Structures are given as C-alpha cells and as structure tokens.
Amino acid sequence: MQNAGMEYLESRLMFGMVPGLESTRALCDALGNPERKFRSIHVVGTNGKGSTSYYLAGILQAHGKKTGLYVSPHLVSLRERIRIDDTPISDEDLDRLLLRVKSAAQSVAVEPTFFEVLTLVAFLYYAERGVDVAVLEAGMGGRLDSTAVAGGEIAVVTSIGLEHTEVLGPTESAILREKMGVVGESREVACGKTFVVGGISGSLLAEAREYASVLGCDCVVPEIRDDIELPNLGHHYIENASLSLAAAEIFLDGAYDDVLARETLRTRSWAGRMQQLTGKDCKTRVILDGAHNSHAVRRLVESLDTYYPGKKFHCLFGALKDKDVGEMLKLMAPHVSHWHLTKTPYPRFRELSDLRAELESLNLPVASEGELSREYLDKVLAACDLDAQNADMPLLITGSLYMIGASIELLRNDYGELAFFRGLSATTNEHR
Q1: What is the pLDDT of residue 163?
Q2: pTM (two decimals)
Q3: What CATH number should be reported for the domain holding residue 395?
Q4: Do the domain assignments include residue 432?
Q5: For 69, phi and psi rounded to 5 degrees?
Q6: Helix (H, G, I), strand (E, B) or coil at 40
Q7: Where are the beta strands (DSSP E) in 284-356?
Q8: Per-residue pLDDT tens over the stretch 218-239
Q9: Is residue 431 assigned to a domain?
C-alpha cells in the first residue's frame, strides 16, 4: 500500500516540467527557507552532471564535511536522489517531508511540479540534518531550475550540448548562459561566486569567461588530470573527476588534501555508468553502462577501444522505442560477439521482435532473447562462461538506464559494488 507522501508526489506528474523559480521560492519562504541553512555547490551541464556531483560529494565527505547529495534520475529507488554521506533518505523521512511540502503548497496556493517537490524535500532534509554542504545536480538548465534558489557559491559546468532547446535556447551559446545562470542573473546576486568549467569548445570557453566577468565571478578551467584512478571506465569520467577535484580545492580552501581526494576517487564508482562488477574470483564479470542514445554509445565504444582493444563481448541489450537503435547497434557491432536481447515490463521498451528485426537488417545474429529476469540473466551469464573463444570477458549490459536499474535490482546482492542498493524498494521511473 502506497503512503500518502508518495501519492502526493505522483500527483505532481501531471504538471510535467515547468521552468521558473516562483513556486520554489514561495515554498521555501513558507517552509522557513531551509536552503539558507547550509552551503551549496551547483553542478550543471548537458552530460556528466551525475558523476561529477557524486565524485565531488565523496571528496568533501572524505575531508570531514557532512555532505548532502541531490541527483537525478534514480536507478532503483527514489530515495537514491537525496543522500547524506552516501546514505539515502529513509522512507519515513521522505514521506514525512513530502507531506510537509504538500501542506506548504496548499497554504500558499501553488501547484509545484514533481522535481520542485523533491528539491524542497532535499532542502528540508539537509537543513534538518545540519549538513555542512550540499552538492546539487540541476535537473534541467540552471537559471530556471528549482535547485538555483539555494544560491550556491560554486557552479560546476560539465559540458554543453543542444538539449531541451525549446526551453534553454536554440544554440549552445544560449544554453551555456542558461546553465551559468544558476548562480543568479545579476551581478548583484552572483558577484564573488566561482565557476569551474570543463568539457566545452574554445569559443564557448571564451563566452563562459566573458559572462563570468559580467557577473563578477571567477572562472576556473582546470586541466584534465593524468594522475586520477577511477573504477568507472572512460576518459570522460577522468574529465569529470578533474572538475570535482578543482571544485573541492576551491571550496575547502587551505584544508584541501589532494592525496586524500585522489585516494577517495580510486574506490568511488558511479553506479550504472561504465561500472565494473567484480566476482568472487576478483575478475570483472559484468560491465553496466546506461548508454541510451548514439552520443552515449560513442563514449561507450571509445572506452571499450581503450580498455578492451580488439576484444568482443556478449551484450545484453534493450532500448526504448524512441531511440535510434539502428545507429546504436551499428556503432557497437565491432565490439559484440553475441547479442542477447531483452526488455522490462516498462511500456516504452522496444519489443523483442522489433530489436531482432533491427539486428537482422544489419546481418547481426541473435544469440538469445527473453524478458529481463534473474533466470534469463543467469542464462546469459552462463553463456559467457561457456564461450571459450571469449574467455574471461565480462558481460556488457547496455542500451537503457531503465534496464540498468532493473539489472541492478536483480544483481545487487551478488556484487559488492552494488551494496548501496540493497534494501531499497523499487520506485517507478516513469518520471525520469
């Protein structure tokens, strides 16, 4: 039976995404401005926000700071989105605070969106628990994203690409300004804050520096570090970790310890993104990657070229109906020896027959297919073990973050890297 808080939260889905800060500000005022009771750091960008936020939160925590982390989407449970020192908010606290936000919304006669409600819950939770700092991943954009009301002193810009152009603007320049606007639109509000910027072209970087100057902000562009070790595979994660180290050094000032920070990153694995799962024999058994479009698959392929040159994988693949599956399959084909097709009950998933037809059109044979379940997953893992030609190669699971979440739910008790998810009840991702 669903609790009253979650019922209220799900009732917010009908409002979709509504850019603007009016509702969030009204609710913050009604709730006693919890966002002012802790320091905050914003993380904005087209890609890389989640891993950058996660790495940064871990570094701050290692330095003794009680650290809140607000990220989206979740993989298994809604509780993942709101954490303190790597511990997710409890069901009881989530329900209680959802009802507090509901009461406040009724008192000021506003109808907040799903994301706005969750943002307010995070602010309340971090204020109640007395965090020293909260790392806040923006949901969309920056200037009009509900997280912006926290007024963070540092904003990390991870990358810029064309996304949500109907809201953020038709060009990368317009989108850059929208994201940098997370610190405030005027010099009066933004002056003295710091941008940490990476992953953008030279021309955009010049624009970022110019806009930061207009706002009276510093603009730091850190070099990509070559001394970072991460569990996540891929150069783009090194780029994101480099941003996290720079932001932490600025925030912590003289208390920053680079050796401690890098040691923290060595074991900090961002779940479901080029994540390696290690078996009892200390060998990598599974690689989870939520690549769900052609851009993300290109990053996946680059990483496979680097870490597994010339090797081929058994691949468990599923994708949503609105994705360019043909292009995704073509990009991955040189790295896959056996295709295993799957889907979850989520209605937006492509049917197995559709995926099979896509592979057949590319003359790629299907090794197996089945609904995602523990039985089918074990069958695919067994096929990997029996394949002498690709001995000791891990199973690659990719194609959709929804499927990664479902796979984590099935595998979480078998791999130490997924221990965070144990005990979390699954929550729908319809609002991803």
Answers
A1: 66
A2: 0.94
A3: 3.90.190.20
A4: no
A5: -135, 125
A6: strand
A7: 284-289, 313-317, 336-343
A8: 999 999 999 999 999 999 999 9
A9: no
